[in-house]
Amino acid sequence: MSYHCQVTLNSTHNFFADPEITKNAWILNWEDFTYKMVDSLSRLFITGPCGMATSESKGQEIVVTADGASEIFSVDTLRWREGMAMSMINESLKLPGVLETLNLNKIKVKHIRKSNQRILQGYLNHIPTGPGLPANIDYSSVAQLDDTFYLLGGQDSAGSIPTDAVFKYNQEEEAWEEAGIKVKMGGGEDENGFFG
């Protein structure tokens, strides 16, 4: 595995996913050093970091994110699921008539004819599920804090430009929020291509 993501579930179990190559996910039991393969991601996530959020209403959930999108894994059911935003879009496309405006990760499609809804539905079925980041950011660091996690810095996936953005995951809303803080940026790229 390369660029795998890892989340500590409790004192004896860790979650691992390989979002970049195989889409597989496992839970490691540290007590007897056994792996249990669980449900796989529905698509590949290049440079996909992950973090865990916990609430009474949704339980423990792990979010893998990259390319401006994410998938959500329920630790209770051991299954990945669609996020609220994607589910609502899929349902609205099944309705007869015309969609007035669809805004999906800054792509606006206006006045979709009924004959084109099937084509768009096929396209949407291949778009990653879950809440998308407000910006396409790759190579972010993850900081777990209390019942949620933060994505820190990384690179703008459009031009590989370092970013000082910090986003907090809101589990109840299934949305990303700007954290109101920035990552301190260093003096530029070093001889190894790292920013520091």
List key phrases describing it.
196 residues, mainly beta, Neuraminidase, 2 domains, 4-stranded antiparallel beta sheet
Task: Describe the structure in your own words.
The chain has two domains: 5-83 and 129-178, Kelch-type beta propeller (Neuraminidase, 6 Propeller); 84-128, no CATH class. Helices cover 11% and strands 40% of the residues. The protein has helices spanning 84-94, 114-124, and strands spanning 5-8, 13-17, 25-29, 34-38, 50-55, 59-66, 69-74, 79-81, 99-104, 107-112, 137-138, 141-145, 148-152, 155-156, 161-162, 166-170, 175-178. The protein has a four-stranded antiparallel beta sheet with strand order 1-2-3-4, with no helix packed on it. The chain has a four-stranded antiparallel beta sheet with strand order 5-6-7-8, with no helix packed on it. The protein has a four-stranded antiparallel beta sheet with strand order 12-13-16-17, with no helix packed on it.
Structural topology:
Blueprint: E1 5-8, E2 13-17, E3 25-29, E4 34-38, E5 50-55, E6 59-66, E7 69-74, E8 79-81, H1 84-94, E9 99-104, E10 107-112, H2 114-124, E11 137-138, E12 141-145, E13 148-152, E14 155-156, E15 161-162, E16 166-170, E17 175-178
Antiparallel strand pairs: 1-2, 2-3, 3-4, 5-6, 6-7, 7-8, 9-10, 11-14, 12-13, 13-16, 14-15, 16-17
